[in-house]
Amino acid sequence: MAQPFLPRRPRCASTLAVTLSVGCLVPPGWARADGFVEDATATLNTRNAFYQGNFKGGDVSVAKRQEWAEGFILQGGSGFTPGVIGVGVDVIGKWGVRLDSGRGTAGSGLLPKTASGAPAEYGRAGAALKFKGFSTLVKVGEQTPSLPVVRTNDARLLPQTYVGTTLVSNPAQWLTLYGGRLNTFSNRDSTNQEKLHMHGSSITGDHFDYLGSEFRAVDGRLQLAYWHAELKDIYAQDLYRFTYDQPMGTGTWRLDTGLYVSTEQGQAKAGGLDNRALYGGLSWRQGGHTWLLGLQRLFGPDDFVGLQDSPTVMTNHVNNIFGYAHERSWQVRYDYDFAASGVPGLTATAKYVQGWDVQRSNAVDGHEWERDFNLRYVVQSGQWRDLSVSLSLYSLRSTFQSSLDETRFTVGYPIRLF
Question: Residue span of the signal peptide, if any (predicted)?
Answer without folding.
Answer: 1-33
